[in-house]
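Hello support,

Our group uses your service weekly, and this is the first time we've seen a run hang past the timeout. The protein is Group xv phospholipase a2-like protein. I'm not sure whether the cause is the sequence or the server load. Input pasted verbatim:
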Amino acid sequence: IDNLKLNYDNVTRTTSNQLGVDIRIPGWGDPLVVEYIDPSKASPGSYFSDIGNMLVNDLGYVRNLSLRGAPYDFRKGPNENEEFFAKLKTLVEETYAINNNTPVTLLAHSMGGPMTLIMLQRQSQKWKDKFINSFITLSAVWAGSVKAVKVFAIGVPDAWEFRKDNEKYQLDFTAPGVEVHCLYGSKVQTVEKLYYKPGTAIDGYPQLVFGDGDGTVNIRSLEACAHWQKSQKQKIYYQGFPGIDHTNILRNHDILAYIKTVLKV
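Update from on-call engineer: The timeout came from a worker crash unrelated to the input. Re-ran successfully.
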């Protein structure tokens, strides 16, 4: 775990790997690198594998042709992922071209939702109308998570500086301008508030108050996509699935069936 740690420099406003550690994101465009986040392909490393297998076996998608993967360094904020945004746009255009000019459906999970949103916000409506069919999001973290705030509040002294570096992305919630299918879990106990009793130091341990969400992301954040309904002409579909947590949404049968229905059309 220590090898994955990022060191933040509040003078240069950038992060760096641990001394002597070089981390690279393999297999750009290859769906297998997001279907399994461990090269052994053992079940603990399974990520998009259930969705990938369903698309290949049931709908006839072909890996590295009609089914692509777009991995990125999840440790870094949008301000340090400029290369990802450029490469994702190019990957969309390439996939469109090699599939007889067929518009692309984007599928993202968790922080992949807002990361993909940033890419879409940067494109013209003409580009989106040509290249994008729809945007399916699973457990997208549209408006943050109190669970993440808990980690920062208890043990990351530079968290506020890091937040300031990415504040412009957090404040821009412009609609994507494409059809959206926003799916998320609900009715799972999720940290909603951090309550510091009078006299408790900020570096002390607050009382955790729980509310609705998917166990990681709060319901207000998960449902934030609904705000786009009045901001764009393209359809916004959003649906909560009770009892499904933040990661199990990737292998839930109801979710797979929903995705299958959208992509059959």
